[in-house]
Amino acid sequence: MKALVYTGERTMRYRDEPDAEAAAGEALLRVDAAGICGSDMHAYHGHDPRRVPPLILGHELVGTIVDGADAGRRVTANPLITCGRCDYCVQGRQNLCSNRTMIGMSRPGAFAERISIPRSSLIDIPQDMDSRAAALTEPAATALHALDLSTRALRRPLPEARVRVIGAGAVGLLCALLARSHGCLELSIAETNPLRRDAAQRAGLRAVDPRQDDEDEHAREAFELVIDAVGSSHTRNAALRGLRPGGVFMHVGLQDWASEIDMRKLTLAEITLLGTYTYTTADLRATVRALHAGVYGDLGWVEERSLADGAAAFADLDHGRSAAAKILLRP
Length: 331
Hints:
The chain is an alpha/beta fold. The chain has helices at 38-44, 87-90, 131-135, 137-153, 170-181, 194-202, 210-213, 233-242, 263-268, 281-292, 310-318, and strands at residues 2-8, 11-16, 26-35, 55-56, 60-65, 74-77, 80-81, 101-102, 114-118, 122-124, 162-166, 186-190, 207-208, 223-228, 243-251, 272-275, 302-306, 326-330. It folds into 2 domains: 2-136 and 299-330, Quinone Oxidoreductase, Chain A, domain 1; 140-275, NAD(P)-binding Rossmann-like Domain (Rossmann fold, 3-Layer(aba) Sandwich), CATH 3.40.50. Helix 4 packs across helix 5 and helix 4 (137-153) crosses helix 10.
């Protein structure tokens, strides 16, 4: 089969790979579309020791089952392979499974014509669901999970809160679109890339250049909720500066693994700092319904390319040449 293989720092090769084969309890899928995630870009940059080349990346997918009694059924999947037995799995918090593995990390991913995945990881979708929407289930569920945790911590309803999202990549954009669908009117998204700011504005969002905010005293202590979908040392401190006393800081992005933050502000202003990791199975199922219902809008900001063009897509994202918050690759 053809696959896009991460072979080393900033190197992706479209080449022949051994055909995927389904092990016991697994399903073989023909991949219809797979999205490039920020974590795939971390691997591409050589910043993720968990993803060791050569490796087929990709964990955001929609595909069609090609084996077994349900051959022909279209599905998406939970890329986290969980044990189903640990305390977290039993509690329904599969994202924290003590024994989890992941496609595109510890086993071959979805940037290929076919992939094998445990049947327990399959997520049903409406059979008429658009592939573009279905392939966004994973990042959209990440946004849903983050916003759910945020709203539990807020002291006032989301429609009454001023909200800032940092980063107009896919998860940031989806967080903002979901917050808007929940009635949040005082909402803005901060993005340094002008192409992505334009894309966010075309999606109906207010997009600002945070470098101008740094010089604007009115942007300090202005928000009840800040969602950092970048996770750099700079954005973490910008998030804290922007929060009002008693506000909520939702940390989603992982660009930098560690950095100093203003602990004095965090303490004296009683800021609630929350981290979030991916989603639960329930989140994925709810997200399928939301995407199919059009909750996230028309998804016109998503770009589609062929898998054979995947190396160029990674390079364009690396150099900021693409306005798309999400590029889907189609085998």
